[in-house]
Write a structure and sequence with these properties.
Elements: H1 2-8, H2 20-25, H3 34-52, H4 56-69, H5 73-85, H6 89-102, H7 109-124, H8 136-139
Helix pairs in contact: 3-4, 4-5, 5-6, 6-7
Amino acid sequence: MVARLRFLLPTLLLTLAMTPGARAQAPTPAPVSAERLDQARRHMDEGQSLYARGRFAEAAQAFRQAYTVQPFAAFLFNEAVCHEKAGDSEQALATFRRYLTADPNPPDAEALRARIKRLEEAVARGAASTAPAPPAEARNDAMHSLLVFESNPPGAPAQLWHRAEPTAGPFDPAGPNPGWK
């Protein structure tokens, strides 16, 4: 279970805190079809399973299929990580760039741009990344996961919390929650 959590962490944790004024300025995203979401989730699960078994090229294909079904940027990030782990620097670079186009301001933008620069240098040298990328735990950017949130009524304010300190106690909706952000 811990290994699975490590694999999934850090997930793409989003903080959704929207005021009514901000909501009025933002376009309402198209509703996500439950059928398409389930199909994308199956591809994502397959990709994560293949990744965990070291079958990176196949995992990249599964994440590409997930993105085709439901274009969530996290699927592009995961596909790029798989290409990098498989030693395909050119494809990893192209897919990381597509990810930045789909999500121009990801929370890990600085680290991602450094990673892209490293890949650009490898491609310029003509060096296919035959050595796999460092272990995900060491990079702290393993895979992004998927979180779909729908509010009722649409546009209602919401917050998503994550444990920022490993020693933080259980989350209490009515409490101050030290160690949670």
